[in-house]
Amino acid sequence: MIYKTRGIVLRTVDYSDTSIIVKVYTEEFGIQDYLIRGAKRKRSPVKSNLFQPLSLLELVVYKKEGKQLQTLKEARPEIHFTSIPHDPAKASILFFLNEVLLKCLHEEEHNPELFSFLHETIQTLDATEKHFSCLHLIFLLRFTRFLGFYPQGNYSKTNFLFDLREGRFTHAEPMHPDYLTGENSFLVNKLILSDYYSMEKLILSGPERKNLLDILLRFYLLHLPHAGNISSYKILQQIFH
Question: What whole-number distance in Å separates Cα of residue 146 and Cα of residue 100?
Answer without folding.
Answer: 13
